[in-house]
Amino acid sequence: MLYTSDENQGLVKVLQFLKAHRLEYLSGEDLSEVLKISRVAIWKHIKKIQSLGYKIESKQNLGYRLIDSTNLLLPWEISEGLKTKKLGKKIYYFDVLESTQNFANGISRKKENFGATVIAESQTLGKGRQGREWISPKGGIWLSVILEPEFDLYKITLIPFAVAVALANAIEKTLRIQTKLKWPNDITLNGKKVAGIIIDASIESTKIESIVIGVGINFNVNSKKIESKIKKKTNFYGVSSLVNDKKVKPAVLVKEFFIELEKILNKLSENKTNELTNEWIKRSSTIGQTVTVTDTDGKITGKAVGLDKDGSLIIKHSGKITRITSGDIIYHK
Description:
The protein is of the alpha+beta class. The chain is built from 9 helices and 15 strands.
């Protein structure tokens, strides 16, 4: 099943009218007359809307009334009322997809897709960092965003940090949950991973051709079930899921994420890199910790004392300072 922002205009018109009149019943005749759609088409749209998880009450001689919205991340649920300039305006939605990142990479070179988002309710071959598997069941938020490649090449290493700060801010604003950031690009809750980020970039010579950010959020998933599948992995440190006590719809979080992401990417474009790194450090669980970093050159154990201007982790060990540009870290209590 595929939906895009540009399709299903009749369905969306019916839905928007129902949303605007939640307190009253609307007859098929009224809907048909106001929206200039046949009554048969109205009935088909109502049935389709219900199949997408919306709760609609139907009463004979009265008509239809919308009781509750869907939990699906449908394009119109995200774009409706979204106060951004580019992000979230064009959306490709799938109920199942191998990988949002692979699909987004495939369409990222076309200028008309700059700012577009690919969303899947579940992934069969979800991608994590360094080609690792990312378990992506229904209930999570799995998306990839194609960024306009307007950044200077040297800033590309800071994009994961911008995404992490934006996501942490969005989670706090919508769910009132404070998360922590673990270097290089994990979002954690109570010391366990609750979200992850990957970046794919195509670079030719010194020019960025395309940037695709992948975001996986354990919004409402069975974290124990995921843990059982990956607990033997060498980089495993636990899986968590967001606690949605306020029954916030996932689209609300995604919309806030786009708002926060656009704001912080603007800071990056304006060369306010210190503001970005300071925001990341403020939310970090890594800085100040004794850590062991494993990368292609081996292992280093020391104290994480800071973040360099390019996002490298600064480790103090054996009386010297080392900059780490990539790798996995574990904390020592």
